[in-house]
Structure formats: C-alpha cells, structure tokens
Automatic annotation (TrEMBL):
SUPFAM superfamilies assigned to the protein according to its UniProt record, in alphabetical order: ISP domain
The protein's required cofactors: [2Fe-2S] cluster
Name assigned to this protein: Ferredoxin reductase
Annotated organism of origin: uncultured Chloroflexota bacterium
GO molecular function: 2 iron, 2 sulfur cluster binding; metal ion binding; monooxygenase activity; oxidoreductase activity, acting on paired donors, with incorporation or reduction of molecular oxygen
Amino acid sequence: MALMQAAPTLNPAVDPGGVDGAPDAGKFVSVCTVEELQERGVITPVGLGQSVALFWHDGRPYAVDNRCPHMGFPLSKGFCKDAILTCYWHYARFDLRTGGAFDTWADDVRTFPVRTHDGRVWINLAAARTSEEERSHWTGRLQEALDQNIPLVQAKSILALLDVPRAWRRTCSPLAHPRSVKRRTRPSSPSRGGRRPTPLPGAPPPRPTTSRAACTAVKRSTTTRRNPLDGARRRGLGRIRDRFHDAFQCGRNTRG
C-alpha cells in the first residue's frame, strides 16, 4: 500500500499549535513508519529516555506515557475502543486524545504531540507543563483526593508537589488543620525572656525536645504489652535496640 503523505498530518487533539512543514528536529523524534504502526496497532519505541506507548486509532497516531498513572502498569498491554484506552490491570480508563482519566482514583495520563511526515511518525518528547501548571494540577488533585478520601491520590499529589519548586509551602499551608497551626510572635525559649506557646484545644501533642523524652516516646511506641524482653516477640523494636538489650543481658550475666 503506497503512502501519499507529502505534508505532515497534525493531531489537533494533542498538537493544536503545529505549523506546516517538516517537524522541528530539535523537538520531534522519528520513532517508526506509519505502515508499521498501522499493522501492529501499538508500538513501544525504545531508546527515547521516556516510556512511550504509540497507538494507531481512527486513522491517527496517538502517543501517551506507557506507565499507567494509577500503579505503573504498561498501557501498551491494555486495549483501546472508541478512543478510550483501558489499562489491563485495574481497568482504569483514559481518553486517548487528551489523556483525561474517567476514574477519580487514577490520575490523567501524559500525552505527547504526534505528527506524520514522509511516511514516518514523529513524537515531541520535550512538551511538558510549566511549574505553575504542575502546581495548579496537583493542587486540584490533592483537594479532590481529600474531599473523596482517596489515600493513594493524596500521597501521589503530595509527592508531586514536593518536586515542584516553591509549591509545597504555597499549596499545603492553607490545607493544614487550623488548630495545629499557630504563629509565633515571641521567642519560645524562657531563657530569652519569652514564654512557651500555650497549646490550643485539639492540637496534637508537642514533639519531645530532649533526648530522654525522645527515647521515652520511642520506647512507649515500640514496647509490646506482653513481654518486651522476649526475643521472639521483639520484632518491632529494631536491630539497634536488640543490640543494646543483648549487651545489657551479657553485662548482667557477667556481674552475676
């Protein structure tokens, strides 16, 4: 079958701002031929530095991140019908054109601009959202996860906001519990003429300020009710505490 494509065909859903002519060599990368993609239906090109799944659907190529945003399963193992890409593991559904997720517990999948020129498929891997767009996206996802009580999305949103520059303080400070936040206007140390802040009702207990208090808190949180000195039941105490316990037992046996 001869391919009569002299000018590049743009995908308006993921590349609306494209221009006529050959793809920019600095942004677009040639991955395969159009005929090969049409025959196989889905291709996962290698050597790009990015996991990409390339689909041929409804006479157009589409490129998405091959990692499912839910738990990382390869989307190339899924199936596509009516422009809806379904992950084969937990059946998360995504819009193949825009990458939007139909399920609240799965985040949107990243899409890449795609062009066809001279019988080959070109992908733009450099297209990415700015820091402000990333912050706005993950802030909305975090708020939705808090409203709908989805712990996995909450954790993923917080980790993503930690990677965005200056996004954590601007985003998560208003989400903190008002009873656990108190602005200090005076020095908290009594030796400097100040006074310790009075804990508000319902606020969490303060963290230990001395090593003795810290050791006591760790001991209370790790000691079991039965017999903390029993080696078979000291699974949660850790190796360091086990060594201290063995040294103590050895010293007591030596003195006896």
